[in-house]
Amino acid sequence: MRIGRVELYGVELPYAGGTYHLSGGRTYESFDAAVVRIACDDGTEGWGESTPFGSTYLAAHPAGTRAGIAVLAPALLGQDPRRVERVNDVMDRTLVGHHDARTALDVACWDAFGRSVGLPVATLLGGSTDVPMPRISSIHAGEPEEMRARVADHRARGYRAHSVKIGALDAEGGPAHDAERIAASLADRERGEYFLVDANGGLTPESALRLLRLLPPGLDVVLEAPCASWRETVSLRRRCPVPIVVDELGQLDSDLALAAGEDLADGIGLKVSKAGGLTPGRRHRDIARSAGLTVSVQDTVGSSLAYAAILHLGATVPPRLLRGVLDCEEMVTVRTATLDVRVADAGVLPGDAPGLGATVDPEVLGDPLQVWE
Ligand SMILES: [Mg+2]
């Protein structure tokens, strides 16, 4: 079974909530998805997606994702997609870094692997726990009462975990404004709900400590990605009374080994395209498991195909450590595929369909931007 053809598609994904606001004054209205189809000599196909969160979230941007795929795709022709680690060896030898570009190809190989043996990707990754996974909302930064309303809206749609974005600039009100945002977002908290307060690297140790002093006592939150560098995170960690979750800083295996070995965090945000696909993603899962770090399985953003990869990896995380999965599909207005997903009150699970369980919509994808064969 060999890869004989790689197709690259581009899809624009408008944000479903208008304008998304992140720390540091960053805003986003639409995202560019790179979707890849691999076709094998035995007729098996596989699909994968990588959608950067604009150009100001990680060291990735949509044109770079497409350019990286153009470098990697020719090297994968003739490779067996079932040998996922060896496919990643080829990508290592072809292009350093560029996890976003590698992700679409890596995920497409897992999808093809699953389709070829008639098993869901979650089974190939070790097997689904069959415990429904809470969905995590993504509450962008705004006025406190607006954020409270968005949490309530997601609560009404069945979300049991919420990622509340903070990181107000001084001109926006600084730590005092962030404290109001957090208090408002948790004002109607229900039993069993879980709140991540996510600064996306927008705080300094100084502003984070000021913020924590301004919070009403007893709020049950964890602080995600407070600072933009490891140095700042180490400094804050020594003085921070709430759990810290690493997200943007945890990109390499060695980042997670550092976080675990030096006890710099209590959990990780495991984003598939930040890790570089499901192959490194399962290592991050296992490092977290070995260290007792909690895990929320996410992606930077993305459509149905990215959500499918999240579901299959998330389902293999031990429930004791899994905090939830990001429903990125609901963050955007375009569906690239119909998914085999089981939805219950307690959460979501991938279905039993082979591969990612995704039936891609060719109308949405249109013609490929580029083809290699
Ligand atoms: Mg985050």
Describe this protein's structure.
This protein is an alpha/beta fold and 373 residues long. It has helices at 62-76, 84-94, 99-117, 121-124, 144-156, 174-185, 205-214, 230-237, 253-261, 272-275, 278-291, 304-314, 362-365, and strands at residues 3-14, 20-22, 26-28, 30-40, 45-50, 135-139, 161-165, 194-198, 222-224, 244-246, 267-271, 294-298, 322-326, 337-339, 341-344, 347-350, 358-360, 370-372. The strands form five sheets. An eight-stranded parallel β-barrel has the order 6-7-8-9-10-11-12-13, surrounded by four helices. The protein has a four-stranded antiparallel beta sheet with strand order 5-4-1-18. Strands 2-3 form a two-stranded antiparallel sheet. Strand 9 (222-224), helix 8 (230-237) and strand 10 form a beta-alpha-beta unit. The protein starts with a strand and ends with a strand. Bound molecules: magnesium ion. Magnesium ion binds at residues 198, 200, 224-225, 247, 269.
Task: Briefly summarize what is shown.
The chain is 36% helix and 24% strand.
Provide the fold topology.
Elements: E1 3-14, E2 20-22, E3 26-28, E4 30-40, E5 45-50, H1 62-76, H2 84-94, H3 99-117, H4 121-124, E6 135-139, H5 144-156, E7 161-165, H6 174-185, E8 194-198, H7 205-214, E9 222-224, H8 230-237, E10 244-246, H9 253-261, E11 267-271, H10 272-275, H11 278-291, E12 294-298, H12 304-314, E13 322-326, E14 337-339, E15 341-344, E16 347-350, E17 358-360, H13 362-365, E18 370-372
Parallel strand pairs: 6-7, 6-13, 7-8, 8-9, 9-10, 10-11, 11-12, 12-13
Antiparallel strand pairs: 1-4, 1-18, 2-3, 4-5, 14-17, 15-16
Helix pairs in contact: 1-2, 1-3, 2-3, 5-6, 6-7, 7-8, 9-11
